[in-house]
Amino acid sequence: MVNPIRSEIDFDAEGRHVGYLRLPHSVHRSAYGWIPIPAGSIRHGDGPTVVLMAGNHGDEYEGQILVSQLLREIEPQWVSGQLIFLPMANFPAAQAGSRTSPLDGGNLNRSFPGDPQGSPTAIIADYIEHTLLARAQYLIDFHSGGSSLLYDGANMLAIQPDDAGQTTRLRALLGAFGLPRAFLHAPNPLHSATAAWRQGAISIVTELGGAGTVQSRLLREARQGVLHLLGHIGALAGPLVPKAAPHETRFYRVSGASHYVYAYEHGVFEPLVELGQRVEAGQPAARIHFPETPLREPVTVAFDAAGEVVCQRAMAAVQRGDCLFHLAEPA
């Protein structure tokens, strides 16, 4: 089945081109309308194809700024190969400032490989995987904690390769990006990173702060890192490529469910530790308070494993099942 999205951009054309991916969307307000997904391409000569994506989740703003900035700043003559830009990949969600799409409730990063006959989010996922990633060797997907989570600084995630040679190459790429932390994890078939892997591309995902805010320091670090990485893989040359990565990257692992802490009550969340802090198994992590039942004592939630606190909930109000903390261990 052919995907119904039609691009205003000729992705085979040399030079810089900007326009919209048109997703047909017939509604009461607009019977013959389409959803405008912003996109850009800079193509010049031979070299790798890199997809630079943001707005996968609409309430994660750092990448939306950065991808748009890079599209404006990079001149075609500095490129070897092609850079494809998606600053608001799930446009309905990004326009609404929501993690998920208001049209269908779709979470784009839980929708791959998508469906060309499905809901708007599923159609977008199918187009990204089977049209854009199918022509790419690299995906850089910019995420943050969004509205509900806050990461400690700038972080990267990548799928753990199967063999030592691939692991060495991946670590070199993550080191060239140079954000402070890199988490290696197992593939999730619904994520963009695994969509890239299915198409033969290497993926690096960022987690930059969050809490519905934008931190200029993290934007600067991510910009320096991605430009240095593009230079490292031979996709970019010229004055924008920095001489060094922003940091020396430290590698971490996440040991499954034991590295996450969840609320089991409806109430108000009081964290008892700080981002970046080292914690031990059994250590109190948070208290859940119950102001609507003021004589009820708060419930204390503990960590199931040791690790470093790399992410915590940004909102005080919680319900059963909400994530409070995310830990990682140096690898």
UniProtKB/TrEMBL annotation:
<protein>
    <recommendedName>
        <fullName>Succinylglutamate desuccinylase/Aspartoacylase catalytic domain-containing protein</fullName>
    </recommendedName>
</protein>
<dbReference type="InterPro" id="IPR053138">
    <property type="entry name" value="N-alpha-Ac-DABA_deacetylase"/>
</dbReference>
<keyword id="KW-0378">Hydrolase</keyword>
<dbReference type="InterPro" id="IPR043795">
    <property type="entry name" value="N-alpha-Ac-DABA-like"/>
</dbReference>
<keyword id="KW-0862">Zinc</keyword>
<feature type="domain" description="Succinylglutamate desuccinylase/Aspartoacylase catalytic">
    <location>
        <begin position="46"/>
        <end position="233"/>
    </location>
</feature>
<dbReference type="Pfam" id="PF24827">
    <property type="entry name" value="AstE_AspA_cat"/>
</dbReference>
<dbReference type="InterPro" id="IPR055438">
    <property type="entry name" value="AstE_AspA_cat"/>
</dbReference>
<keyword id="KW-0479">Metal-binding</keyword>
